[in-house]
């Protein structure tokens, strides 16, 4: 079992979970959804820095906090690495995963201004 936690303050209140490839296709529009996705990129809301930091947890374990399930799906990790980054392309975390499709579940305490976000990946490799 693996678990990574970060307090993240970002200018724009969105983060991305994507394949580490330079050929990532970002979602065109987040719309009204907490999370939107393409085949190899997932975009989700966090707090803007003016509101404080969001605690972001990435794990291969189910969420252990009370919150709402906000997203369930699959993204392609062709490189075997998923990256958590912001809109300025700053990479907060690189997570080794088995190459190919990776299941993703996301929970949060709020759908627009989450103080915490929990991302469960189908598998995280220990290197």
Question: Could you characterize the architecture of this molecule?
Answer:
- Helices cover 0% and strands 50% of the residues.
- With 127 residues, it is an all-beta fold.
- The strands form 2 sheets. It has a 5-stranded mixed β-sheet, with no helix packed on it. A 5-stranded antiparallel β-sheet has the order 3-4-2-7-8, with no helix packed on it.
Features:
mainly beta, five-stranded mixed sheet, 127 residues
Outline of the structure:
The chain is mainly β and 127 residues long.
Q: Sheet with the most strands?
A: 5 strands, mixed
| Percent helix | under 10%
Spell out the helices and strands N to C.
EEEEEEEEEE
- Mean pLDDT across all residues, rounded? 93
* Rg computed from alpha carbons, rounded to a whole number of angstroms: 13 Å
What is the fold's blueprint, element by element?
Blueprint lengths: L2 E6 L5 E6 L15 E3 L3 E5 L8 E6 L8 E10 L3 E6 L4 E6 L3 E9 L7 E6 L6
Parallel strand pairs: 5-10
Antiparallel strand pairs: 1-5, 2-4, 2-7, 3-4, 6-9, 7-8, 9-10
